[in-house]
Task: structure prediction
Amino acid sequence: MTTAGDMEDGFPATRLFNQGYSYTYDDVIFLPHYIDFPTDAVQLNTKLSRNINLSVPCVSSPMDTVTEASMAVSMAALGGIGIIHSNNTASEQSSLIRSAKSHRIPFASSDIPFLSPDDSISSGSIFDSSPCVFITTNGSKSDKKLLGVVDKLTWEGLADKEARISSYMQKNVVTLPNTYKFEDVAGYLATKEMDFVPLVSGEGEVIDVVSKWDVERIKGFPKSGLPSVGENGEFLVGASIGTRESDKQRLEHLVKAGANVIVIDSSQGNSIYQIEMIKYAKKMFPDLDVIGGNVVTMNQAQNLIQAGVDGLRVGMGSGSICTTQEVCAVGRGQATAVYKVSSVAAKSGIPVIADGGISNSGHIVKALTLGASTVMMGSFLAGSTEAPGAYTNQGGQRVKKYRGMGSLEAMTKGSDARYLGDTAKMKIAQGVVGAVADKGSVLKFIPYTMQAVKQGFQDLGASSLQSAHDLLRSGVLRLEVRTGAAQVEGGVHGLVSYEKKSF
Ligand SMILES: NC(=O)C1=CN([C@@H]2O[C@H](COP(=O)(O)OP(=O)(O)OC[C@H]3O[C@@H](n4cnc5c(N)ncnc54)[C@H](O)[C@@H]3O)[C@@H](O)[C@H]2O)C=CC1
Ligand SMILES: O=c1[nH]c(=O)c2[nH+]cn([C@@H]3O[C@H](COP(=O)(O)O)[C@@H](O)[C@H]3O)c2[nH]1
Ligand SMILES: [K+]
Result:
């Protein structure tokens, strides 16, 4: 006869995370549970904060090499959300929010060229980022009256490339409202047999231009969750602020621009500065969700919950570009931090964002099962087409720059203000500047990543985030720490060479 004692297998989370060790995702492994549903039955819909629902548990980090308008649009289109960084002026940050909100479909052209009728086009490279060039009186986007358009074919057919644009531009440009959804624009291009069509705001400003090639590209992306949109049909967009006096004005700008949620961005959120900022924001804008952080302990979390936060961001020193633990000797292994903070946050119904240290779908499964409601990512997204900045070549590889917001380079760009005027006039970096490999579009790799996450949830016998959290807390779900050798075994090993292609 088997007794309960004989069946003791693995550790419940409470025991594993109370032994005095700081564990991160790679240290721990879940024991598989029981499957009684197909992968597609797994639901990943979740909450970012008390009042913001998402169909996909992914958030892009408020970093200047990760989230500007293009990333925010694509994350929301996927069913997640982007948090626009604040390493800029309040008006620059607000216009990034407005730009994201003016789109209904993921950016087709990131860089739309404008010229004046008196200009000429000497090189075809202007058509690299857009199927056409728009013509306004002053040659800029700010002049909202569209005089004409020049497409690549017309320009290529010109005998005299020095000719003034006014002599050959096509007048009476057909446009569509920027409020049109992807299906409407695609349908219009197909029925009219047009190559491209500009999308224009109510004020006449060109917001985007969609070509029939963009339509094919976007149609080729796998399906994701329902897009994150507000009642007005606009994409949900978040924004970060700091805890300086000037951030109160910034907050007002961001709310005016339509920010749906605010993240108070700090490495150590349990401070008098942040608590005052939370109370101020909640008093001024009671309907606005405010996410506090970063925290890694139950005590820090409790303080911010008492101050009134609607969500918590967890992680200190776990980010790929972070040197905080090295420089300041504070932080926590991310698996332990997520588990501990989530345990206390769940009691108050406050969703947790597991921020930093995500480098594969397994890390996402671990973060979400340990109690987080979403994951926030920097490096995982920084090599995508939607991240700010251009690709460069490094040793034969296409890369994009990715830097810590506490790196000297980022600090001297804008977050400077937080260091100047402080007693600490000597800047100490807590992050590095680096590069990440080209990963293509988030519209492609996030859906595949979410499919992998669903497979992980199926192995755990969890058909939703809530079910995973319940299984973990009730002790049904068991974990173990992996030894160094077990971690090696868990990876690819013993091969002379191999190619790793995930999808
Ligand atoms: N998650 C992480 O592990 C880390 C993240 N970072 C990122 O780097 C950036 C900068 O982070 P932090 O240096 O923590 O920024 P921070 O603005 O929270 O703190 C910078 C310094 O300013 C002080 N300060 C803040 N508000 C103040 C006020 N009202 N009056 C007087 N002093 C005040 C703080 O105590 C601290 O000494 C953020 O984007 C953050 O997310 C940096 C380090 C670690
Ligand atoms: O110690 C730090 N110094 C920095 O300069 C820095 N910049 C960002 N962050 C944090 O790292 C998170 C992104 O981490 P990943 O690249 O691992 O996704 C982000 O979401 C932040 O929480 C920093 N941490
Ligand atoms: K680190």
Observations:
- The longest strand covers residues 289-295.
- The pocket of NAI (ligand 1) is lined by residues 242-244, 265-268, 271, 273, 294, 315-317, 319, 322, 324, 356, 405-406, 415, 418, 422, 424, 430-431 (CB under 6 Å).
